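Listing S7. Sequence submitted for prediction.
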Amino acid sequence: MNSIGEHLRVSLFGTSHGAVVGVLLDGLPAGIQLFEADFEADLARRRPGAVGTTTRVEDDELRFMSGLHEGFTTGGPLCIEVINVSQRSADYADFARQPRPGHADYPASVKWGGYADLRGGGMFSGRMTVGLVCAGVVAKRLLDGVSIRAEVQEVGGSRDYATLLEDALREGDSLGGVVSCRVEGLGVGVGEPFFGSLESRLASMLFSVPGVKGVEFGAGFRGAAMRGSAFNDRIVDASGHLASNNAGGVNGGLSNGMPLELRVAFRPAASIAREQLSFDFGLGRPAPMRVAGRHDASFVLRTPVVVEAACALALADVGPQLWRVRAR
């Protein structure tokens, strides 16, 4: 499915080398003020430009197809298209015959009987996150008094990663990394038990982001090695303030008033220039291959704004009481 959400329904469409990518938001209240300029800062954060990012640069020209009139949401579905102009599809011509290791080429070809559009990674490309970022801009505007900020914590296992990026570029390789995110202003009680828990809803949205392989809250996996006496976050005053935040701002699936703190692990990019072996279905045997095209040595550098968008969308869906404008 390319859609998610109950109170706020998010649907992504398009492909990396198609005419457009985009997003449809259904369930938005009327009266949210939005202009194209409101999207520019977050879209710019997602674009390449830093060392280690792709040379494919898109202008990200937006077209508001429905749901917006004279600068305000109408209450109808908001449809945003983003035009693709910088495609080089010839670089991807042979991936049905010889799939890239680590990419979705092979399972997508099998699932859809060879009809999948694999150009630029198709619907599995990081290009699809431009729709998420657009939706995230709207969700951030919708949330009242909630601050969401993500940043790169490490790349290639190190906080000091400039040299690692240069080495990966020189060797035609790629690096994964970790992005941390902090959410403030949720208050107490956002979320539901079990399947509607704040953690499960956030994790579901975050795992929808291409390349995500892990999500942890608070102390996360470190907490498995701690004793309860050390892990437990003591309540220190009548306002419910806690002495620590090992739970990451969530107890029992509900926000506990502390900042929500999480980390997201991203795998290294599958498309690398370095020679690899992969099965060639035309030859009937494994054969060496090099992936041409324009790819990130570490796409992690461009993902903090995507993580913010995913969190904003999940929070807007699970906590409509946080909306600054109520649906009518």
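Caption to Listing S7: primary sequence and predicted structure tokens for the chain studied. The chain has one domain: 3-322. The longest strand covers residues 147-155.
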